[in-house]
Amino acid sequence: MKEVRVSVASLIGSINNKKIGIINHSYLKETGESVVSAIGGGCFLKDKKYLREEFFANNFEGEDARFIIPEQKLNSLIEFLSSEKSEEIIDFSIDRELEEELTGLEIETQEKQFISKEDLVDFKIINKFTHLSEGKSYKFLGGNTFRYCIYYNVSCPDSILKKLLNNKEVYELSNEEINLGFTKDGLKINSNIFI
């Protein structure tokens, strides 16, 4: 039976209409390669049991909504992810990801905070959209990874964005860099950042 890895993520599409990426410390730790990724990550999984029973999900990656299912269950999973019921099972909120990645809560992977928890209060969601994609992942060499990503375009005071951009691990990316797949410094840009 062919299997597919599923990754359900909440990501920042833009901040104040600027494409912002950060060094992905988890990727660096696991592969030794630096890559610039969108701010955000795997959504919080509230109920693994439901996914096991309905979609035969297995090999969960911690508390994140990342798991493996039989390929023939993919279409029904996509339908489920687009339903209101999915919100009872998965927390699609961007708040947890902003807090983890920007205030230094990911202690084992990030050594410092970029902004304070108080600064997060000033982030406002402008809009959001969903993007589906399929590709390869270093975490699942046996097949494809299906990505269900919710992108949030947010705003914040310019002073907070400036504080964020003052860090050498945070990048404001041009459309040209995103299209090329590399920063002007030569770092690879993850495919989860797009125009």
What do these coordinates show?
By secondary structure, this protein is α+β, with helices and mostly antiparallel strands. Helices cover 27% and strands 36% of the residues. It is globular.
Fold blueprint:
Layout: E1 3-15, E2 19-23, H1 25-31, E3 35-38, E4 40-42, E5 44-45, H2 48-55, E6 66-70, H3 74-81, H4 86-89, E7 90-91, H5 95-102, H6 117-120, E8 124-137, E9 140-155, H7 158-165, E10 170-173, H8 175-180, E11 188-189
Parallel strand pairs: 1-9, 3-11
Antiparallel strand pairs: 1-4, 1-6, 2-3, 2-10, 5-7, 8-9
Give a quick set of tags describing it.
195 residues; alpha+beta; five-stranded mixed β-sheet; four-stranded mixed β-sheet; 8 helices; 27% helix; globular
> Which blocks of ≥5 consecutive residues have pLDDT under 50?
none
Distance between the termini: 36 Å
**Mean pLDDT metric:** 86
Strand content: 35-45%
The gross shape turns out to be globular
Share of residues in helices: 25-40%
* Helix-and-strand structural type: alpha+beta
Radius of gyration: 17 Å
Number of strands: 11
Task: Report on the biggest sheet.
Answer: 5 strands, mixed
Number of helices: 8
Count of domains: 1
Oligomer state of the chains in this structure: single chain
Order of helices and strands: EEHEEEHEHHEHHEEHEHE
